[in-house]
Amino acid sequence: MAGRPTINTVAAAAGVSRQTVSNTINSPQIVDPRTRQRVLAAIEQLNYTPSAAAAQLRTRRSRVIGLRLQPETDGINGAVLDRFLHAFTVAAQRESYRVMLFTAPDDAAEIAQYSQLVAASNVDAFLLTSTHAGDPRTAWLASQGLPFVTFGRPWTQLSEADRHAWVDVDGAAGTRLATEHLLQLGHRRIAYVGFPRSADLADERLSGWATAMADVVSAESREHLARHVCDGVDAGSRAAESLLAESEPTAFVCASDSLALGALSHVRRIGQRCAVIGFDDTPVAAAVDLASVAQPLTQAAEAAFDLVLAQLNGESPSPRQYLLTPHLALRGSGSVTPDPSTSRTESE
Amino acid sequence: MAGRPTINTVAAAAGVSRQTVSNTINSPQIVDPRTRQRVLAAIEQLNYTPSAAAAQLRTRRSRVIGLRLQPETDGINGAVLDRFLHAFTVAAQRESYRVMLFTAPDDAAEIAQYSQLVAASNVDAFLLTSTHAGDPRTAWLASQGLPFVTFGRPWTQLSEADRHAWVDVDGAAGTRLATEHLLQLGHRRIAYVGFPRSADLADERLSGWATAMADVVSAESREHLARHVCDGVDAGSRAAESLLAESEPTAFVCASDSLALGALSHVRRIGQRCAVIGFDDTPVAAAVDLASVAQPLTQAAEAAFDLVLAQLNGESPSPRQYLLTPHLALRGSGSVTPDPSTSRTESE
C-alpha cells in the first residue's frame, strides 16, 4: 500500500464504510464498540492521521464555537447550563466541531473576548446563554457579521432585520403545566414564588401560573398568592412562610428548584401538607423527591448547533427560532393532594 | 497617533499600565470595573486588536488545552468535575490560554481524539480527569511526548521515568477527618458506606475511615461496619438500612454525597438519630444540610494549570505532583451527637 493512508485505506483495512471510519473519529458514541476497536486498530496500524488540519486550511474554518462559561451561582440552578454545555459539545462533535470555553464577568468583557477570539481566528461562531432585555452582545455580533445563536430568546422587541437565530424553552408553558396539574389534583389556592418582576423570564414564568389561575381566583387574590424574591433556598423558605401566614395556600409553584427546595423544606419542617413544584429538574430535585418542570436540554442543544452550522454553511434555515415546550418531571412533592379537612373553599 | 495601535497606545489612552490592559483582556475578573470600562473604551476608540494571532504564529502555540468532558452520571457527583472545569478555565484564561472540550465514550476513543486534536494542531496540551489503575491514556501521551497533567493520581505504581505531572486530593485524609470529627462528638460505632473495593480511590477513601477507627473497634467489627456498593442515592439508603439492622451504628461516613443523601434520607424517614457525612460538598449537600468533605477545587485547578504551563515553557517544575488536603464542610447532619439512652458501649 503506497502513499499516505486515506480514510478509504482505513475503511478497506477495517472492512467498514468511509462513514463508519468518520463516525469512529467524530462520533464514537454511535459506533458499535467492537467495530470501533477494529477501526482504531486499522488507524493505528496504517498510521493514519485525519486530515483536519488540511481541511481547516482549505475551508479557513477552525470548526470551533466559542461559549462563555457562566460564573457559578448557588450551584443548584447552574446545573442546567452545565447539562446544556454537555449536550451542545456532543452535538458539535458529531459534525467535527469543538467548543472553546472562555469566561467574562459582564457583557462588555464578553464582547472584548469575542473580538479577541475572532482576531486570533480560532473561533468560527458563538453560542450565547443568559440573554436579557437590551442585551448588547447580540447587537455587537450582528454588527460584525459574526455567526451566532442564543440559548434564550431576545427579550427586547427586535425589528425583522435584527431577528437572530435562537432556541429557548417556553417558561410560561412550564409554570402553566405545573399549575394545571395541581388544579387537577383539587388544589385551588396555589401560590407562586418567582423572581423580582422584569421583562424577561421572570414575568414569563409568572404569566404561566397567572393564566392557569385566571378562572380560579380573582386578580386580587392572585396578587396575594404571589411573591417576587431573589433566587435562593432561604428566600424560598421565607416566601413560603409568609404566604402560609397570609394566604393559606395548599400548593406552591416555584420559578426555580432553589426556591422550591426552600419552600419544600419549610412545609416539611412545620409538618404542613402542601404540594411543591420547582423549575429546571436539577439533580437536587431528583435527590429530594421534588417535582419540577424539565427543559428539553438535549433537543435545545441540537437545535442550537444546527442553527450555527446552517449559518456557517451559508444557508438560511427556516425557522431560525425554536421555542421548545418543557414537560413535568413528576415526583412525590407534586402529588400531594389538598387536605380535605383544612382546605378553604374558594367562592369568588 | 500613527500606525497600528499597540498595547502601549491603549495603556496611555486609558491612563493605566500595560499590565492592566493585559488583565482587562485576559483576566477581567481581577480588574476594578470602572478601570475595566475605561480600558475597554480606549480599546474600542483606538480599534485595537490584541495580537493573539500574531503571537500564535510566532510561538507556534495555539494556547489551547484539551479536556474531555465526562459523561454525566447521576448529576450529583458530576458537579465536582463541572466546578473543576470552571476553575481551570479561569486559571488558564489568566495566562491567555483556552480550554477546548471534546467527548469520548472510553479511553481508546479518547486517545483517538488526542491524536486528531494534535494533528489539527489546535491543542497544545491535555488535562485528564478520572484516572484509574492501568490507565492507557497517560502512557500514550507520554510516548508521544505531549504535555499533559492529570487531575487524579496514577493508581498504578510507576517507575521514576514514567512519573507524570498530576494534582489530586487526599481522599484518605478526607474520610479520616470526617471520622475523627464524629469520634470527638462521642460516636464510637461509626459506619462506612463506600464503593466496591478497587486499587484506587475506593480503597483510599475506605482506608481513612479504617485508620481513624483502628483504636476504637476491632478489625472484625470494622468489617461489619462497612458496606461496598455502587454509587447512588438508593444504594446509600439500602446500605444504611442493612447497617442499622446488623451493627447499630450511630453515625455514617460515606464516600460520596449520593450515598450520604441516601443514608440521610433513610435515617430521617425512620426517625433515627444518626450523624451522616458525605464526600465532595456538592450543591445537593448544601441544599439538604448534609455535612461533607470538600475538595479544594480552585487550588487543584490552579496547580494543574501551572504544571501544564511549566511544561509548555520547557521548565521542569518541582514538585510535579500535588496531593492536596480536603477540609470538612460542617453542616447539621454532621453535628448530631450519639443518643445517650440508646448508644451501645464498645468494650473490645
Keywords:
14 helices, homodimer, alpha/beta, about 350 residues, 6-stranded parallel β-sheet, elongated, 6-stranded mixed β-sheet
Secondary-structure blueprint:
Two copies of one chain form a homodimer.
Chain A: H1 7-14, H2 18-26, H3 33-46, H4 52-59, E1 64-68, H5 78-94, E2 98-102, H6 107-119, E3 125-129, H7 136-143, E4 148-151, E5 166-169, H8 171-184, E6 190-194, H9 201-213, H10 219-224, E7 226-228, H11 233-247, E8 251-254, H12 257-269, E9 275-279, H13 283-287, E10 291-294, H14 297-312, E11 321-324, E12 327-329
Parallel strand pairs in A: 1-2, 1-3, 3-4, 4-5, 5-11, 6-7, 6-8, 8-9, 9-10
Antiparallel strand pairs in A: 10-12
Structural summary, described in words:
Two copies of one chain form a homodimer. By secondary structure, chain A is α/β, with parallel strands linked by helices. Helix content of chain A is 46%, strand content 15%. Chain A has 14 helices and twelve strands. The first copy, chain A, has helices spanning 7-14, 18-26, 33-46, 52-59, 78-94, 107-119, 136-143, 171-184, 201-213, 219-224, 233-247, 257-269, 283-287, 297-312, and strands at residues 64-68, 98-102, 125-129, 148-151, 166-169, 190-194, 226-228, 251-254, 275-279, 291-294, 321-324, 327-329. Chain A has a six-stranded parallel sheet, with helices on both faces. In chain A, helix 11 crosses helix 12 (257-269). Chain A is elongated and about 85 Å long. The relative contact order of chain A is 0.12. Mean pLDDT of chain A is 87; it is low at 51-58. At the A-B interface, helix 3, helix 4, helix 5, strand 2 and helix 6 of A face helix 3, helix 4, helix 5, strand 2 and helix 6 of B. Strand 2 (98-102) of chain A pairs antiparallel with strand 2 (98-102) of chain B.
